[in-house]
Amino acid sequence: MSTSRPTQSIISSARTKHSARIIAQTTVDAKLHADFEESGESFDYSSSVHITSGVSLTGPPRTDKVTSTYLHHIQKAKLIQPFGCLLALHEKTFKVIAYSENAPEMLTMLNHAVPSVDEQPVLAFGTNITTIFTTPSASALHKALAFGDVSLLNPILVHCKNSGKPFYAIIHRVTGCLIVDFEPVKPCEVPTTAAGVLQSYKLAAKAITRLQSFSSGSMEKLCDSMVQQVFELTGYDRVMAYKFHEDDHGEVTAEITKPGLEPYLGLHYPATDIPQAARFLFMKNKVRMIVDCRAKHVKVLQDHNLPLDLTFCGSTLRAPHSCHLQYMENMNSIASLVMAVIINDGDEEVDGLNSSLPQKRKRLWGLVVCHNTTPRFVPFPLRYACEFLAQVFAIHVNKELELESQIHEKNIFRTQTLLCDMLMRDASLAIIVSQNPNIMNLVKCDGAALLSNGESYRLGVTPTDLQLHDIDRWLSECHMDSTGLSTDSLQDAGYPGAQGIGSLVCGLAAVRISNKDIVFWFRSPTANEVRWGGAKHEAGETDVGTKMHPRSSFKAFLDVVKTRSLPWKDYEMDAIHSLQLILRNAFIVAENLDIHTKTIHSKLDELKLEGIQELEAVTNEMVRLIETATAPILAVGVDGIVNGWNTKMSELSGLPVEKAIGNHLLTLVEDDPTEVVKKMLRLALQGQEENNIHFEIKTHGSKADSGSISLVANACPSRDLHDNVVGVCFVAQDITGQKIVMDKFTRIEGDYKAIVQNPNPLIPPIFGMDEFGWCSEWNPGMTKLTGWDRDEVVDKMLLGEVFGTNTAYCRLKTREAFLNLGVALNHAMMGREQEKVPFGFFSRNGKYVECFLCLSKKLDREGTLTGVFCFLQLASQELQMALHFQRLSEQTAVKRLKILAYMKTQISNPLSGIIFSWKMLEDMELGPDQRRLLHTSSQCQRQLSKILEDSDLDAIIDGYLDLEMDQFTLQEVLVASISQVTAKSVEKRIRIRNDTTKEIMTETLYGDCIRLQQVLADFLMIAVNSTPNEGQLGVSCTLTKDHLGESVHLAHLEIRITHSGAGVSGALLNQLFDNDRDTSEEGISLLISKKLVKFMNGDVQYLRATGKSSFIIKVVLAAAKVDK
Fold first, then answer.
1. DSSP code for 189
2. Pairing of strands 865-874, 848-859
3. CB within 10 Å: which end of the chain, N or C, has fewer?
4. Would you say 1014 and 1056 are in contact if contact means Cβ atoms under 8 Å apart?
């Protein structure tokens, strides 16, 4: 695919190319499926792909009879899977206008165990659906069918009138009618309560919590975590994360399987394996289940009086195409479950379908695919839970892609800056290929070249000089109106000499600097870079004519793509065109360098002066705002002495400014929350912001009799120019009135309406939800805040109708906000304690409201759960300003996390080189001492790799870590641990002595040797640092065994590290044993090591004696029983 870019927008160009590719690929899909349907027993996938591969992906859209028939079949096919049945109802009368052939048997067949003499309902065209089910079920269905967004109520539990069998009714709306899928429910699985959304969330709550706690920085680990959660949640034999590349082919990026299945991890699959029509449906229906690919499909009968054929694209029962079923069977995948992963497509916004708010353009990033070797049915609530999980996963994928893009853009900007600097120092254009960095560092490529004044300069994999000049002539003749060209296939772009260089390069990006200067970037064919699923084929092996086997299909696909490279990304072309502009202006800049330099220095001086003046103005304005603010604000120094006390604080407490200044803060607060204030002050002075801290201030003078005032405050550290904390500023909100009302509210039992419906402005906005998910309460405070009356929202679905993303009364900004609200409501329903949740929505007049959401479960007199109460706490303008500063701090923290992720990635690359060197050395002839040194080095490398994987320290501290089970000897661990402190001990002339017996050193043990090695290295380093120069350090071990079974012993290992000197500092020991998370770098290392010892069922002690001290480390391992 190629494009010339004179002036057009890169985004719109990419969008046009993508649309053309989708249309062309749909034609390929249609031809492939038509060949399969017409072939009978002689279908050959290989020849079919060769025939369709000639379709141009850049030509004009082509619609023919084959394509039209294929699309009609996808949309209007009248077949469903047999595990359920389907009814289509008239939108207004709810009478049957279509039904599946198995519906009469499943829904109206009499249960022989329950005889009846009443007239039995008959299912036919015109039947009213309410006559088929019991009265409560008919009432629930009737209410749901009249509901606006019916999908929010799915699934609806109904019981048949005749047999009493339970079914889940899953409803969706199409033009002019309602489609109802009925899926059978096992009697033991019939739920008692819970609406669809909340019930489904409960099933996936644990998995969603794990994904939400995932720390950014690794897409691979995120995908691994997702497939693990889905594997545990659904129980399928194989779960894969399947990512779509820009040319629409797919790749398995993560996988987990049950034992005995062939792995697909890392394989690439052709775009035709998942047709474009299926991808479009995945954008609409996020989850797709096939229960049994061998089962016979059921026809859907439609009333002949209907003017148009009905579409069943949204049905959960929709039958798959026969070509796909054959594909599944040949993969030995009898059942499947597929979840769509839909993310934002860049920053471009489009108009929302049902909303006045602009929405981000969406695209299908990939799929989470589950396969099973036997038929498997997953109930709808669990499938809906998987959809929840996939949405959370998509949010994290979006964040990872944004982080990756930022890192790429940062590297590109750095390279551009260095190249520009080089050009400023040396006007010769050849410098961009002769120095480091060069133009190959700008974007990912296999080679680059420069033609300048007839001379050629080449880097990496490139065509010859003659071929470069030939490409230059072709560009001048065929693309004379363009300043550049980008293509992933020179052959498709029309270059006559493409076949001559196809084995080396086929992707090209070129920009012209002048009539005599042009720059090239080259990419090799993708077949040389990616592992296609057919790479294992032997020579001469051909496709089996009767099968469309996934293995056989890939060799054919390799023939199609061997002249195509990885496509050029938009941000890469942005970087190339930016460099083009830089190079074009380089010579002009060089001629006017002196003038420009003087101008720049002059501008910088002006900017500095303006910056100082602006800073003074901002500072004066901030002081004025603080003094006159309507919110109470106070400030203290590093010693806790009050040095700021605004007018509002004086007004509330009765203590004038001059009397408050100079007092310690703790003398001004009430006794009960003193510890809270101490902790808040301590953390703030350490640079950590504390939010929403509640405490009470004493009153004085005329206010003394009115009692203390209640404040909710945010603590913001004040810093000097060197980023040192010099004090703390507290921005507070007076909640005394609200606290009095809420205290009264909590003392009243039963008749809560007396308070909730009271129009008193001191009562906060309150709304409620019953146990079925309907809005049950909406007080005057909510009416005033949102503009919606109580009668308009009560008895509406709280999630979706009242609060939602599209047509809801109170619209939320993002889908993520909707998910977070569902999580909070579910936690409240389960009785979990949770902090105030940041919450925001658009009121009726379009104003965006930001507040905090407090939730608590609602119980009746018998203690039965009846719903949830939700209280909104509105933030004052000053508190919102403090929250803004808090968000800025959070953004800074995110930037530091990105830097950490970058460092981890950069460390991993040279580490991989070291590992490769070790493996090369292992194959060489080495002496025993050399092999021991090599083994010790390898152990240290494994320890470093393990530490780099520890991205979530809180998980280790909280006790979430899986230890490995390896066979090792204590000698291997001790030698590797001591080697890590040897350099430091030699520097301090400390003698290290190992007093462990040879019998213990050579004992075969089982456990996580790398984690044990990490622990010993940490404690040895602390001991060495605490030992004076020319001191001594000793290591001794004892081992006792307990009999466990016939062949296994429990090995109780005690390791004593004794060192001379005064011992480890008290502050460091307090950090080790007090479990304080606010620790130093040494302290966090010791704390992690202590936790690792706990994982090994052990403990750490420290004994201090005169002249010497000892760490005593006890762990429990396994040891094999050795016959004498």
1. G
2. antiparallel
3. C
4. no
Do residues 202 and 384 touch, judged by C-beta distance below 8 A?
A: no
Structure tokens at 872: 């909104």
Cβ proximity of 631 and 879 under 8 Å: yes
Element at 1040 (helix H, strand E): strand 1032-1044
Residue 1046: strand, helix, or coil:
coil
The tokens for 764 are: 């906060």
Residue 204, both tokens:
């996936």
Cβ atoms 419, 437 nearer than 8 A: yes
Residue 127 parent element (H or E)? none
Structure tokens at 987: 């520097």
The closest of 715, 698, 714 to 706, measured between CA atoms, is 698
State both tokens at 825: 């409501």
Mean pLDDT of 49-56: 42
Chain centroid to CA 511: how far? 37
* Spatial separation of the C-alpha atoms in residues 313 and 65, rounded to whole Å: 21
Q: Give 849's Cβ-side CA count (13 Å radius).
A: 21
The pLDDT tens digits of the residues spanning 1003-1044 come to: 888 888 888 988 998 899 989 988 999 899 999 999 988 876
User: β-pairing, 865-874 with 837-842?
Assistant: unpaired
As separate numbers, helices (DSSP H) first and strands (DSSP E) second, the chain gives 33, 38
Collapsing DSSP to helix, strand or coil, 1065 comes out as: coil
Q: What angle do CA 378, 774, 756 make, to 5 degrees?
A: 145
Token pair 């968000």 is found at: 887
**For residue range 392-425, what is the model confidence (pLDDT) as tens digits?**
888 888 888 888 877 777 788 788 778 777 776 7
Helix or strand run (H / E) with residue 20 = helix 10-39
Q: How many CA atoms within 13 Å lie on the side-chain side of 897?
A: 17
pLDDT at 112 exceeding the cut of 50:
no
Beta bridge partners of 775: 769
CA distance readout (Å), 524 to 14, 271, 509: 21, 20, 12
Residue 537 above 50 pLDDT?
no
Q: What is the pTM of this model?
A: 0.55
Q: Is 709 exposed, middle or buried (0-12, 13-18, 19+ CB in 10 A)?
A: buried
DSSP 8-state code for residue 55 = S
pLDDT for position 882: 65
User: What residues does 243 pair with on adjacent strands?
Assistant: 251, 366
Cis peptide before 320, with omega less than 30 degrees from 0? no
User: What backbone torsions phi and psi does residue 590 show, to the nearest 5 degrees?
Assistant: -65, -40
Order across the sheet with 96-100: list the strands. 79-80, 298-302, 96-100, 85-90, 177-184, 166-174, 156-159
- If one counts every other C-beta atom within 10 angstroms of the C-beta of residue 253, the result is 18
**Distance, CA of 352 to CA of 335 (rounded, Å):** 36
- Confidence grade of residue 201 (pLDDT, cut at 50, 70, 90): low
Angle among Cα 317, 322, 326 to the nearest 5 degrees reads 115
DSSP string, 840-882: EEE-TTS-EEEEEEEEEEEE-TT--EEEEEEEEEEPPHHHHHH
Pairing of strands 484-487, 2-4: antiparallel
CA proximity to 213, closest of 1088, 955, 888, 1087: 955
Q: For residue 633, report the phi and psi dihedrals to the nearest 5 degrees.
A: -135, 135
Residues 888-895: contacts with CB under 8 Å, at least 24 apart: 889/689
- DSSP conformation class of 58: S
Measured CA to CA in angstroms, residue 190 lies from 103, 182, 316, 912 at distances of 21, 14, 20, 53
CA-nearest of 12, 14, 45, 1102 to 556 is 45
> Each residue of 158-186: b (16+ CB within 10 Å) or e?
bbbbbbebbbbbbbbbeeebbbbbbbebe
**Spatial separation of the C-alpha atoms in residues 180 and 140, rounded to whole Å:** 14
- Position 736 scores a pLDDT of 78
Q: How far apart, in Å, are the Cα atoms of 381 and each of 125, 170, 190, 194, 204?
A: 30, 10, 11, 11, 10
Residues 6+ apart with CB under 8 A from 545: 41, 42, 43, 44
